[in-house]
């Protein structure tokens, strides 16, 4: 009889788990297997293959088995690892806060471009930014990592999200002072906590935008694990945009710019909500060529 203990090397485990994940319809079986195993072995995915014949220790096998079990039940890899890469940063994530998406990097990229353009026209001035719905703090931290001299206020209604955002802020505090950046986190409902006279050069948001009726149709990883409050945009998915146009844009300076992540099919719906005080600059597409960012500015 073959000893099973000796068979559980890095390579056999990766291969076995890949097949097991495939059977359970996990979308990226090999990647997930490698990420979870690297997490357990406390090394990078590449490092796994430097030592692929190495047998795993019993406690590593036990920890890995638990993670695999939870993964096939639907728990996203990022929650299992407690971390997610976004832009050039590793961010803490936990259940209770949305896992930052690659789509949102398009919003960050377009925001960086627009802020840099603004900075060329306003030399040495600090650029003030309001962000609504910060979650992990992904967007302002990514901006701080790519820009200097920005002053950001980020709001979220969720206490859980703000706890994680604060942890991420502490983890990446090197992106602040030495770069002349500041980031303040505030708990509140959209614009309600702001003084009436508060005005910003930019407002940026990835708000919840899934129509309520479509939430139940989301893949189980999202539906059963991620916070509904981060996703549910009301009956037509446009509630947050409606409120941003109604109550948010008065917090924009004249010529101030608004950058919003949107659902791929929401351009027309959003254009129909546009108040006279705002105009569209452009719609930017994500890496899959879907409309993903609405960029506009406040008129005089
Ligand atoms: N900015 C993060 C990102 O891109 O990964 C999270 C975006 S998530 C789609 C939307 C966020 O808005 C969630 O963190 C949620 O808690 C927050 N949110 C929901 N309703 C809100 C409200 N009324 N006021 C402020 N934030 C809200
Ligand atoms: N893109 C996210 C998803 O597919 C939705 C994010 C949002 O509502 N802002 O789940």
Summarize the structure in words:
There is one protein chain. The chain is an alpha/beta fold and 300 residues long. It has helices at residues 4-7, 10-23, 29-41, 45-50, 58-73, 77-81, 103-121, 138-146, 159-171, 212-215, 220-223, 239-248, 267-271, and strands spanning 83-86, 89-92, 127-132, 150-156, 182-187, 200-205, 252-261, 278-285, 291-298. Strand 4, helix 9 and strand 5 form a beta-alpha-beta unit. Helix 2 (10-23) crosses helix 3 (29-41), helix 3 (29-41) runs antiparallel to helix 5 and helix 7 (103-121) crosses helix 8. The termini are far apart. Residues 1-5 have low confidence and may be disordered. Bound molecules: S-adenosylmethionine (SAM) and glutamine (GLN).
End-to-end gap:
82 Å
Q: Report the top-level CATH class of the largest domain.
A: Alpha Beta
Going across the major beta sheet, what is the strand order?
5-4-3-6-7-9-8
Compute the number of strand runs: 9
What amount of the residues lies in strands?
15-25%
Q: Enumerate the spans where pLDDT stays under 50 for 5 or more consecutive residues.
A: 1-5
CATH topology of the largest domain: Rossmann fold
| Mean pLDDT rating | 95
């Amino acid at each position: 009889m073959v000893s099973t203990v000796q068979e559980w090397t890095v390579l056999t485990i990766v291969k076995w788990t890949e097949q097991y994940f495939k059977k359970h319809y996990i979308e990226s079986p090999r990647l997930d297997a490698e990420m979870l195993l690297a997490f357990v072995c406390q090394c990078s995915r590449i490092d796994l293959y430097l030592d692929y014949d190495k047998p795993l220790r019993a406690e590593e096998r036990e920890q890995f088995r638990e993670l695999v079990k939870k993964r096939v039940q639907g728990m996203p890899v990022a929650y299992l690892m407690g971390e997610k890469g976004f832009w050039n940063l590793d961010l803490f994530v936990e259940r209770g806060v949305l896992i930052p998406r690659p789509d949102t990097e398009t919003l960050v990229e377009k925001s960086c471009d627009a802020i840099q353009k603004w900075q060329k026209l306003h030399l040495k001035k600090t650029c003030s930014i309001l962000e609504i719905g910060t979650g992990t703090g992904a967007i302002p931290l990514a901006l701080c990592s790519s820009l200097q001299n920005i002053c950001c206020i980020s709001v979220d209604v969720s206490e859980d999200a703000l706890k994680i955002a604060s942890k991420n802020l502490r983890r990446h505090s090197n992106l602040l002072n030495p770069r002349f950046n500041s980031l303040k986190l505030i708990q509140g409902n959209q614009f309600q906590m702001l003084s009436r006279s508060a005005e910003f050069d930019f407002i940026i948001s990835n708000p919840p935008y899934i129509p309520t009726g479509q939430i139940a149709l989301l893949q189980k990883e999202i539906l059963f694990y991620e916070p509904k409050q981060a996703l549910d945009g009301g009956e037509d998915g446009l509630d947050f945009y409606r409120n941003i146009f109604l109550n948010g844009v008065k917090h924009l300076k004249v010529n101030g710019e608004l950058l919003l992540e949107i659902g791929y099919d929401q351009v027309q719906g959003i254009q129909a909500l546009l108040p006279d005080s705002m105009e569209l600059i452009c719609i930017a597409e994500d890496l899959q060529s879907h409309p993903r960012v609405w960029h506009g500015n406040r008129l005089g």
